[in-house]
Amino acid sequence: MDASSSPPLTAPSTVAVELAGITKRFPGVVANHDIHLSVRKGTVHALVGENGAGKSTLMKILYGMQKPDEGTIAVDGEQVSFSSPADAITRGIGMVHQHFMLADNLTVLENVVLGSEKLHGIGAGARRKIKEISDRYGLGVRPDALVEDLGVADRQRVEILKVLFRGARTLILDEPTAVLVPQEVAALFANLRELKAEGLSVIFISHKLGEVLSVADEITVIRRGTTVGTAVPAETTPRQLAEMMVGSELPTPETAESTVTDQPVITVENLTVHASGGASLGPEAEPVGPGSLVEAAGEVKKVLDDVSFTIHAGEVMGIAGVEGNGQTELIDALIGTKNADSGTIAFLGEDITPWPTRKRRESGVGYIPEDRHRQGLLLEAPLWENRILGHVTEAPNAKGFWLNPKGAQDDTRRIVEEYDVRTPGIDVTAASLSGGNQQKLIVGREMSHNPKFLIAAHPTRGVDVGAQAQIWDRIREARREGLAVLLISADLDELIGLSDTLRVIYDGRLVADADPATVTPEELGSAMTGAASGHLEHVEEEAAPEDEAR
Ligand SMILES: Nc1ncnc2c1ncn2[C@@H]1O[C@H](COP(=O)(O)OP(=O)(O)OP(=O)(O)O)[C@@H](O)[C@H]1O
């Protein structure tokens, strides 16, 4: 469509948003090349494509965060030009980012009106409007709830409500299900149906093809910056969609044979961390968990409570849990960015509890962090310097006492090649890579050091199905060689498929064990949200956890 030559429509159009001929170039990369996207009113339109295909760039253009080099945007048949998100919001475009942007210490009401009106003396009108929107779309949001008390799914609903409050008619949801358990995904999809029923449109970005096929009315596939086709969910299988996207079949995380040995690699005993305790030694998020950090009695809450387990050589131990139930603190304690208040950590028979992070890393602890931007990368540094991060003293980054830039650069080229990191070179900044490609770089770096113990937090978050298969293969290969893995993932298929043993964390405690061979994602989801499940073996309150960990 050439919107510049077509007059504004007079009759009400069925098209909410039309992007035509969008081209966007970055140095060395054409991120979008003549892309077309037409989103009808009252539909969920999925946007899928491999890592670096150009999805985020296209959405940043629609949301006014970036200017296209060529092409036009029309909203309700009228051509528009956005210089900022504020412009896009004015025209009814809203975006819910993958990383929520809510202020924890404020209420829902305050968060929703933040930025759109003065906080001082919020009128009854705002409260009424929130209630009205919440009721109309079945969001179930309580205006006076404190955001820090809300779980992930509720926070997401607040984000959705926030954009609706500002008058959004088209909502962009960037990988909204990445952090949700299956039951929460079903609830989100119910909310999306309510939005559709009111004539609103949703642009849904996801790498989870099964979900895309179940929620979308239409699908646009982009590949290497161009639109390669559209698909109708009723007539498409996940396999066909995967082929359109990345030219390969759908991978499965399933691990064929067991490689678990009886050689303990990591043994954690009675690990406890308090909310205010555990001196922080490095960059990590504030401790979060369900409920207040300070309990009613004035006692400091345990964010990790008497946790014990052993992982053996050749074993992947998965931990399932809704975000904020102690996973961050467990990872911090294991990698050494936070001290335990009590308990011990032994690595290959040696007590490493007092060891600093660097010593743990040098001894063979690999680390794929939860938050790649804050913990995994120096965003403004080139790729090859990111290759060195966390491994300053190790080959090929170092020769004796000296840094070896050439070694790091050569090895970065190898990782780029081997892990298919889509980049014009190793001198570009990590910030300029797409999210999935950043993840591939981190995984490549960590696996390159042949760790003996790997802390893998969401190792395939944001990566496409092709890269996912590759990362799973690497983890499986290393596991065959004796790697012990602690796998934390919100992707329950990944968790069930890759794990040899599975445990559920809730409110800082390991509360249940599950058999990966028989448990379903739904059962696991119930256990994660605290509901009882007949299929899981619940850990008795009084039972000595170390007995069952062995
Ligand atoms: N600010 C930037 N500077 C330079 N290159 C960029 C910038 N933003 C994006 N790119 C490049 O544009 C291409 C498209 O990236 P984009 O983030 O849009 O992909 P994506 O489809 O969203 O990928 P993913 O699924 O990994 O999130 C990539 O090659 C990326 O490296």
Provide structural commentary.
The chain is of the alpha/beta class. Helix content is 31%, strand content 24%. It has 18 helices and 23 strands. Strand 19 (453-457), helix 15 (465-480) and strand 20 form a beta-alpha-beta unit. Helix 13 packs across helix 14 (435-448). The protein starts with 14 loop residues before the first strand and ends with a helix. It binds adenosine-5'-triphosphate. Adenosine-5'-triphosphate binds next to strand 2, helix 1 and helix 14. Adenosine-5'-triphosphate is lined by residues 26, 29, 31, 49, 51-57, 422, 432-437, 462. Keywords: ATP-binding, Nucleotide-binding, Repeat, Transport. Residues 17-249, 288-532 form the ABC transporter domain. GO terms for molecular function: ATP binding.
Describe the protein's topology:
Blueprint: E1 15-26, E2 29-40, E3 44-48, H1 55-62, E4 70-75, E5 78-80, H2 85-90, E6 93-96, H3 108-113, H4 124-136, H5 152-165, E7 170-174, H6 182-197, E8 201-205, H7 209-215, E9 218-223, E10 226-231, H8 238-246, E11 264-274, E12 302-312, E13 316-320, H9 327-335, E14 342-347, E15 350-351, H10 357-362, E16 365-368, H11 372-376, H12 383-388, E17 398-399, E18 402-403, H13 405-418, H14 435-448, E19 453-457, H15 465-480, E20 484-488, H16 492-498, E21 501-506, E22 509-514, H17 521-528, E23 537-538, H18 545-549
Helix pairs in contact: 13-14, 14-15
Bound molecules: adenosine-5'-triphosphate.
